[in-house]
Amino acid sequence: VGRDRLLDLGVSGNVEFVQADAEKLPFPDNHFDCVTIAFGLRNVTHKEDALRSMLRVLKPGGRLLVLEFS
Protein backbone atom coordinates (compact mmCIF):
# COMPACT_ATOMS: atom_id res chain seq x y z
CA VAL A 1 0.00 0.00 0.00
CA GLY A 2 2.74 2.48 0.97
CA ARG A 3 4.80 1.66 -2.10
CA ASP A 4 1.78 2.12 -4.37
CA ARG A 5 1.04 5.51 -2.81
CA LEU A 6 4.60 6.70 -3.41
CA LEU A 7 4.50 5.45 -7.00
CA ASP A 8 1.22 7.32 -7.55
CA LEU A 9 2.80 10.50 -6.17
CA GLY A 10 5.90 10.06 -8.31
CA VAL A 11 8.31 10.14 -5.35
CA SER A 12 9.72 6.65 -5.72
CA GLY A 13 12.92 7.69 -7.51
CA ASN A 14 14.97 7.95 -4.33
CA VAL A 15 13.23 5.14 -2.42
CA GLU A 16 14.19 1.48 -2.51
CA PHE A 17 11.71 -1.10 -1.23
CA VAL A 18 13.23 -4.11 0.51
CA GLN A 19 11.49 -7.05 2.15
CA ALA A 20 13.81 -8.46 4.81
CA ASP A 21 14.00 -10.36 8.08
CA ALA A 22 13.74 -7.75 10.84
CA GLU A 23 15.94 -9.88 13.07
CA LYS A 24 18.80 -9.86 10.51
CA LEU A 25 18.59 -6.69 8.46
CA PRO A 26 20.72 -6.93 5.28
CA PHE A 27 22.30 -3.49 5.64
CA PRO A 28 25.72 -2.37 6.86
CA ASP A 29 26.26 -0.97 10.34
CA ASN A 30 25.64 2.77 10.83
CA HIS A 31 23.79 3.10 7.53
CA PHE A 32 20.51 4.94 8.24
CA ASP A 33 19.55 8.20 9.94
CA CYS A 34 16.17 6.76 10.87
CA VAL A 35 14.61 3.30 11.10
CA THR A 36 10.85 2.89 11.51
CA ILE A 37 8.50 0.00 12.14
CA ALA A 38 4.75 0.51 12.40
CA PHE A 39 2.47 -2.18 13.79
CA GLY A 40 5.00 -4.85 12.83
CA LEU A 41 7.05 -5.50 15.95
CA ARG A 42 4.20 -7.52 17.45
CA ASN A 43 4.61 -10.02 14.58
CA VAL A 44 8.35 -10.54 15.14
CA THR A 45 9.26 -13.74 16.96
CA HIS A 46 12.46 -12.48 18.59
CA LYS A 47 11.72 -8.82 19.31
CA GLU A 48 15.01 -8.13 21.11
CA ASP A 49 16.98 -9.46 18.12
CA ALA A 50 14.96 -7.28 15.75
CA LEU A 51 15.47 -4.17 17.87
CA ARG A 52 19.19 -4.94 18.15
CA SER A 53 19.37 -5.29 14.36
CA MET A 54 17.55 -1.99 13.85
CA LEU A 55 19.88 -0.20 16.26
CA ARG A 56 22.91 -1.73 14.53
CA VAL A 57 22.02 -0.16 11.17
CA LEU A 58 21.39 3.28 12.66
CA LYS A 59 24.05 5.96 12.36
CA PRO A 60 25.29 7.43 15.65
CA GLY A 61 22.60 9.83 16.85
CA GLY A 62 20.02 8.21 14.54
CA ARG A 63 16.44 7.58 15.59
CA LEU A 64 14.49 4.37 15.90
CA LEU A 65 10.73 4.97 15.70
CA VAL A 66 8.41 2.16 16.82
CA LEU A 67 4.64 2.52 16.50
CA GLU A 68 2.53 -0.08 18.32
CA PHE A 69 -0.79 -0.25 20.13
CA SER A 70 0.61 -2.05 23.17
Report the count of strand segments.
2
Helical residues, percent: 25-40%
What is the average per-residue confidence, as pLDDT, rounded to a whole number?
91
Major sheet: 2 strands, parallel
| CATH architecture name | 3-Layer(aba) Sandwich
In spatial order, strands of the major sheet run 1-2
Shape estimate: globular
Question: Strand pairing plus helix content: what structural class?
Answer: alpha+beta
SSE arrangement, N to C: HEHE
CATH homologous superfamily heading: Vaccinia Virus protein VP39
Low-confidence runs: none
Ends apart, CA distance between termini: 23 Å
CATH topology: Rossmann fold
Highest CATH level, the class: Alpha Beta
Count the domains.
Answer: 1
| Number of helices in the DSSP assignment | 2
Approximately how much beta-strand content do the residues carry? 15-25%
Radius of gyration: 13 Å
GO molecular function, one term: 2-methoxy-6-polyprenyl-1,4-benzoquinol methyltransferase activity
Protein name: Ubiquinone/menaquinone biosynthesis C-methyltransferase UbiE
Pfam family, one: Ubie_methyltran
Keywords: Menaquinone biosynthesis, Methyltransferase, S-adenosyl-L-methionine, Transferase, Ubiquinone, Ubiquinone biosynthesis
